[in-house]
């Protein structure tokens, strides 16, 4: 039955249902290329019959992969970039740079905080118009290919590659798969060593190949165990001071599990306005309250909600992120003879990468080595964890609104979230003016955003722990200075494609038109369309006084908060 | 991060100590027949220049000149000290002449507007936060226009769908005026939303004339009324928070002109007295 406002289905316009491979990774992949790949030693041992009919290996190679040719000295991946694909060398060789060259050599800006005098000079020469750009051009290392794809060439190739701080990768070797599957930044820069032909597989395809091909799974997992897992485990406080042999045993027994959608930002936009109950139902359950803790869950990347049942609802107690563990207190308690089920549930907030260490392994290899004090410290977690409390609010039995708010809206992703205390903010806009004065007369944030418990989360880049905006940038213009550094955009290499602005789930990246010295828009030669570039908060990395918004607020109403530091946020809220 | 209360105690105590020390120094100087009025005058002038730099700091956000919040605290407590020195300097006698009288009046006006502004900046923000969604001041006229258009659309729809004029009459009689009206300048101080309650009450009393469909639309009008109430509250509060600075800062400039004249007169003519 049709309602009055909806057209009857018979009259509706009909389209083919959208399918996974409507938009292939590359239009240039032909059947002949796929045939060549299937005959390549890489895929000879891969049995196509293991793949489901809906996702055949041939389809994956045709739609989720592409063959790229790199010239000598061309950068294949850059350290620090967030990649969404893995690479296998088909022909030629590549070199991994063990020591990072200067930022300019890789098409990046070298950020140096200017002197006070430098800042004054810049202020005196400030542009008259917003986003004025006199000589906008590509960085010396950046070139555009015939297809418009950005390519980065290492400057001074012999000087860099001839040095003894590189490792050669030969035909058949894979790289970049850990960053692609684990949503982590590239850990090294890889450059073509001579002409090289490389197969690039986007993460969706790589995930399917790993799932249906035991050979690939074994190869990827063993490489992960070799390269990252041991280091990751060794950095886990519980596993400090274990011998290499024991760590190896634990690594071998560790399982990798992923929860949630890799591109969670699209789903997040859909459920953002949904009710709390509906949102909770859509969050994949990692561990259920009341179940037996059969293993320790270590978060490798992403965030998870820790909650427990409260009458007919679910109460959020806290959230955990990279490097944090779940279920340890219960496991220790069980080992000490007092079997205890999980007292809380764990749900994936977006995409979560989990390492699962079986209880038996911990009981055999880890707990016997711990002292009584260490064990007591581990079971201290049996009391409720710290949670964020709103100003003036007391954490009562029904939880608290502010914590639920920041978890539901995924603001926990922020490393420099702009929080404004509305009880103190006089709406003077000194923060906005200071931002504009330090950024081409155009503020990089909007003093408006969702509010809860008298605190506003303003629309400013949060420099996220999981910066999805960086995935897909064709030139690497949006990048992170260091693993924990701020996310910034290099205006010289930004081509204004707006991929980052569309990817940001919080809508904090703005595309702005550039102007010349007379205030007229700069347009393209071909179409006359305005040239735009992405702009966002850069935490005033090029200002000697740090973030101008914070130092300009006369009423102590604004901070840039690392949402992982729950204690700091609490202290600020309860001043 | 020092809690606000602790900070207030520390700074108040430090100001009180300095004030007592200044009072004693002034008294000793006075007994010793030192030119304490000249000293206090120059000290007051120096403090006023220092206080005025707070505004200059706001114009130079790129310089590492301490946080603006630190400047504000200095501004507040040094301001109190300046008031004390003003009392010492003048003895609260304003009979020196027209210029001195005007100068004293100017200082009192600047100090009073500063104290009033400080009180406003602590009083209004919590009210705005409780009123509803925060709005950007410059966008309020646009939002008001949108509300009016939505209200018109609802009453037009009500009449078209139900052939009843109850809501249209209500719009013409009450709602149009209410949406067009701006809150009074000092409305935030009076906590005045009597208009909102009156209009809301009238809408509620109309329900007995409405059919089911009209009640749904009347509820939508109720939501618009709530939005208008927040809009008025945000407008009035933010306007007052901005306006007091338009009094405080020009008065300060005027005061500096008078101080300049006063200093010039003293330097040129004091020795002839």
Short structural summary:
The complex is a heterodimer of chains A (about 575) and B (about 270). With about 575 residues, chain A is α+β, with helices and mostly antiparallel strands. Chain A is about 25% helix and about 20% strand.
Description:
The complex is a heterodimer of chains A (575) and B (273). Chain A has 19 helices and 24 strands. Chain A has 575 residues and is an alpha+beta fold. In chain A, the strands form seven sheets. In chain A, strands 11, 12, 13, 14, 15 and 16 form a six-stranded antiparallel beta sheet that branches. In chain A, helix 7 packs across helix 8. Chain B is mostly helical and 273 residues long. Chain B has helices spanning 4-31, 36-59, 68-90, 98-131, 140-162, 166-180, 187-190, 194-205, 212-269. The chains are: A alpha+beta (575), B mainly alpha (273). Chains A and B meet through helix 4, helix 16, helix 18 and helix 19 of A and helix 3, helix 4 and helix 9 of B.
CATH topology of the largest domain in chain A: Alpha-Beta Plaits
The total domain count of chain B is 2
Write down the overall mean pLDDT of chain A: 81
| CATH architecture heading of the largest domain in chain A | 2-Layer Sandwich
What's the overall average pLDDT of chain B, rounded? 91
CATH class of the largest domain in chain A: Alpha Beta
SS-derived structural category of chain A: alpha+beta
Helical proportion of chain B, percent range: over 70%
What does the main sheet of chain A amount to? Answer: 6 strands, antiparallel
Beta strand % of chain A: 15-25%
- What is the number of helices of chain B? 9
Contiguous runs where pLDDT drops below 50 for at least 5 residues of chain B? none
Write down the overall geometry of chain A.
globular
Question: What order do the SSEs of chain B take from the amino end to the carboxyl end, as H and E?
Answer: HHHHHHHHH
Cα separation of the termini of chain A:
57 Å
Count of separate structural domains of chain A: 3
Quantity of strands of chain B, as a count: 0
């Amino acid at each position: 039955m049709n309602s009055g406002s909806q057209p009857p289905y018979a009259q509706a316009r009909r389209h083919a249902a959208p399918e996974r491979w409507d938009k292939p990774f590359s239009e240039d992949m032909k059947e002949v290329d796929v045939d060549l790949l299937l005959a390549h030693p890489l895929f000879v041992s891969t049995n196509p019959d293991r793949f489901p009919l809906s996702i055949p290996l041939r389809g994956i190679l045709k739609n989720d992969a592409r063959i790229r040719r790199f010239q000598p000295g061309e950068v294949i991946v850059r350290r620090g970039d967030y990649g969404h694909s893995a690479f296998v060398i088909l022909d030629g060789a590549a070199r991994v740079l063990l020591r990072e060259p200067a930022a300019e050599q890789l098409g990046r800006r070298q950020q140096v905080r200017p002197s006070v005098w430098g800042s004054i000079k810049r202020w005196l020469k400030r542009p008259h118009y917003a986003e004025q750009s006199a000589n906008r051009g590509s960085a010396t290392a950046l070139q555009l290919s015939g297809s418009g794809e950005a390519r980065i060439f290492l400057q001074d190739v012999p000087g860099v590659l001839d040095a003894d701080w590189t490792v050669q990768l030969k035909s058949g070797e894979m790289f970049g798969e850990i960053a692609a599957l684990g949503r982590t930044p590239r850990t090294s820069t890889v450059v073509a060593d001579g002409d090289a032909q490389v197969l690039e597989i986007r993460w969706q395809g790589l995930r399917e190949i790993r799932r249906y091909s035991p050979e690939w799974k074994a190869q990827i997992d063993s490489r992960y165990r070799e390269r990252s897992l041991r280091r990751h485990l060794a950095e886990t406080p519980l596993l400090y001071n274990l011998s290499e042999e024991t760590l190896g045993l634990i690594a071998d027994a560790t399982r990798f599990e992923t929860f949630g959608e890799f591109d969670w930002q699209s789903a997040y936009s859909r459920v953002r306005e949904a009710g709390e109950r509906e949102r909770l139902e859509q969050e994949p359950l990692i561990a259920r309250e009341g179940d037996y803790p059969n293993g320790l869950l270590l978060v490798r990347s992403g965030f998870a909600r820790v909650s427990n049942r409260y009458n007919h609802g679910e109460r959020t107690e806290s959230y955990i992120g990279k490097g944090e563990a779940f279920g340890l207190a219960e496991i220790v308690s069980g080992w000490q003879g007092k079997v205890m089920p999980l007292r809380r549930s764990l749900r994936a907030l977006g995409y979560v990468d989990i390492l699962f260490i079986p209880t038996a392994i911990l009981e055999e290899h880890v707990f016997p080595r711990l002292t009584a004090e260490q064990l007591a410290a581990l079971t201290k977690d049996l009391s409720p964890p710290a949670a964020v409390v709103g100003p003036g609010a007391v954490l009562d039995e029904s939880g608290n609104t502010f914590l639920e708010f920041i978890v539901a809206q995924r603001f926990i992703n922020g490393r420099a979230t702009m929080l404004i205390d509305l009880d103190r903010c006089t709406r003077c806009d000194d923060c906005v003016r200071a931002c504009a004065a330090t950024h081409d007369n155009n503020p990089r944030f909007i003093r408006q955003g969702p509010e809860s418990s008298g605190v506003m989360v303003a629309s400013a880049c949060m420099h996220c722990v999981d910066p999805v905006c960086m995935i897909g940038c064709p030139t690497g213009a949006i990048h992170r200075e260091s693993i924990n550094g701020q996310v910034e955009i290099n205006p010289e290499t930004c081509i204004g494609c707006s991929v980052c602005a569309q990817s940001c789930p919080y809508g904090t990246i703005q595309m702005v038109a550039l102007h010349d010295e007379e205030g007229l828009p700069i347009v393209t030669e071909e179409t006359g369309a305005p040239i735009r570039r992405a702009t966002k908060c850069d935490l005033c990395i090029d200002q000697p006084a740090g973030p101008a918004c914070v130092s300009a607020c006369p009423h102590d109403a604004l901070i840039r908060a690392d949402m992982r530091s729950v204690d700091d946020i609490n202290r600020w809220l309860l001043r | 991060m020092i809690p606000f209360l602790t900070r207030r105690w520390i700074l108040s105590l430090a100001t009180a100590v300095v004030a007592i020390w200044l009072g004693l120094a002034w008294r000793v100087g006075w007994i010793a027949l030192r030119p304490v009025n000249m000293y206090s005058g120059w000290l007051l002038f120096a403090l006023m220049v220092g206080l005025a730099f707070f505004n200059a700091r706001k114009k130079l956000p790129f310089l590492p000149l301490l946080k603006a919040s630190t400047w504000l605290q200095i501004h507040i407590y040094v301001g109190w000290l300046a008031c004390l020195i003003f009392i010492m300097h003048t003895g609260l006698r304003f009979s020196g002449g027209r210029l001195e009288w005007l100068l004293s009046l100017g200082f009192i006006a600047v100090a009073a507007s500063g104290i009033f502004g400080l009180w406003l900046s602590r009083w209004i923000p919590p009210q705005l936060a409780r009123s509803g969604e925060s709005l950007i001041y410059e966008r309020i006229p646009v939002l008001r226009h949108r509300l009016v258009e939505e209200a018109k659309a609802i009453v037009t729809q009500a009449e078209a769908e139900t052939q009843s004029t109850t809501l249209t009459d209500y719009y013409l009689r009450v709602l149009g005026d209410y949406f067009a009206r701006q809150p009074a300048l000092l409305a935030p101080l009076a906590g005045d939303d009597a208009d909102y309650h009156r209009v809301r009450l009238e809408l509620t009393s109309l329900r007995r004339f409405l059919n089911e469909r009209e009640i749904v639309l009347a509820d939508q009008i109720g939501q618009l009324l709530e939005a208008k109430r927040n809009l008025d509250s945000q407008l009035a509060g933010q306007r007052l928070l901005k306006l007091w600075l338009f009094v405080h800062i020009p008065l300060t400039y005027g005061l500096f002109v008078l101080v300049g004249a006063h200093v010039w007169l003293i330097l040129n003519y004091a020795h002839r007295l």
